Every structure is written in structure tokens, then in C-alpha cells.
Amino acid sequence: MSKSAENIKQLTTGLEPVEALAKLAELFPGEIVFSTSFGWEDQVITHMIFANNLPIKVFTLETGRIFPETYYVWNRTMEIYGQPIYAYYPQHAAVEQMVNAKGPNSFYESVENRKECCGIRKVEPLSRALNGNKCWITGIRAEQSVNRADMHNVEWDEQHNLVKFHPIFSWTLDEVKEYVKKYNIPYNTLHDRGFPSIGCQPCTRAIKEGEDFRAGRWWWEDQSKKECGLHELIIDNK
Q: Mean pLDDT of all residues in the chain?
């Protein structure tokens, strides 16, 4: 872990999520952002930021393939809190080139094609969203997958040269649900239909009881490590 990440860990240890977010907003004025995909966890953090008027920019990656239910939550969240959620779209030329060459659903054909699509629709826009910032807030929780259990609530992102902070990293799913209910936070109704993780519509399905949390993402791939590149191979835990 880098020195800056270690300093942040020391400063935020023992603080409640809202207190930690407020502290980071003070430390990184105008250089702190939160990425949301409008799932349960992200809605909890969005509420913490907006309800407490914390000066943290909230953004989302508009891949062009998200669920109608996700658009509804996005719009409803802006209506309730009266604050903007900034959208970052993929570069249209890159999307056109990929689709013209391989068709609209090439990601089903190979892992390489799927990673290419994620790279164009998510990874590149994320780089633009994070550019110039020093702190990235996420809704990652430790129990979401085996890969994420090896992470920490404070990380150093070598690729983007910034600190990542996961304010509800240690929360259980039940705690997330209780918080949503307590504050009447709008949430994606796909969760009620068996979708624990909500991404692009063609790449996400509901899971069956007993299946792993990430089983609904890229389910046609027989791999244990299913990440889109946003949180993969960019963490320095040394």
C-alpha cells in the first residue's frame, strides 16, 4: 500500500462512512469522485453524499447497454436529491468500429471480445472520469466475491494514480438493505428479481439460490475471476 493510501487509512479508521467521506472531501477539495452503477451499495453511498451535501462529484458510466430499470433509478435519484449525476459515454468511433467489425453481441463469442467491449464501454470512459482526481469512492463490499475479499477498504490505484476508498467495505448485504429501507432510498427493482449485481443488460442475469454473487455476470464464461477491468489488476496492496 502506498504512503498516501496508508495515511488515508489512518485518518479514516474508526470513522463512520459519512464521517470518513466528509474527511476525504476536506482533504481532496474538487479532486474526489464517486462512481455509481445504481445498485444497492451505490445508492447507499449516493444518499450519504447528497443527503449530507458533501462536495463529492457523483458520476456513472453510460455504456449504452444498461437496463430500463437502471435509467429509472438514475432519474428518480436526481429528482429526489436535486443534484446532478454526471454521465461518461464511450467514444462513439470506437463503438462503431467494434460493432461494424464484429456485430453488436461479439462479447458472447470470446473472453477477448468481452474484455474489448468492457474496455471501450467502461474502462476508457472511467479513465476520463477519474482524470485529474486524487480520490475515488466506490461501493465495493468484501463479501461480494473471493477476489474482493483480498482487497482493503483503502487501496492505492497505480493505474490511475489515486487513492480508492470503499466506505461500506465491511458491510453485509443485510446491512445495506436495512439502510436503504431506513432512509427510503430509491433502489433498482431488479434486485427484487434475483439480480445482486447489475451491469449491462446483455451481460447480467438473475442468479439462483446458492449461486455465487458474481454468477449473474458474464455467466457464459467458465472462469472464477469475473471482473470487467474497472477493479482488476490495478490494486497495489504491498
A: 90
Residue pLDDT, tens place only, 71-102: 999 999 999 999 999 999 999 999 999 999 99
Within a 10 A sphere around the Cβ of 27, how many other Cβ atoms? Answer: 16
pLDDT for residue 238 is more than 70: no
Range of the domain at 27: 3-236
> Within its chain, how far is the Cα of 32 from the centroid?
15
Catalytic residue among 117, 118, 200, 228: 228
User: Residue 115, CB half-sphere, CA atoms under 13 Å: how many?
Assistant: 9
Cross-strand partners of 230: none
Interatomic CA distance for residues 233 and 178, integer angstroms = 32
How far is Cα 25 from Cα 135, in angstroms, rounded to an integer? Answer: 9
**Active site (annotated) includes residue 228:** yes
Q: State the CATH number of the domain containing residue 178.
A: 3.40.50.620
CA 59 to chain centroid:
10
Number of domains in the chain: 1
pLDDT at 236 over 70: no
- For residue 226, the model assigns a pLDDT of 47
C-alpha cell at 208: 439462483
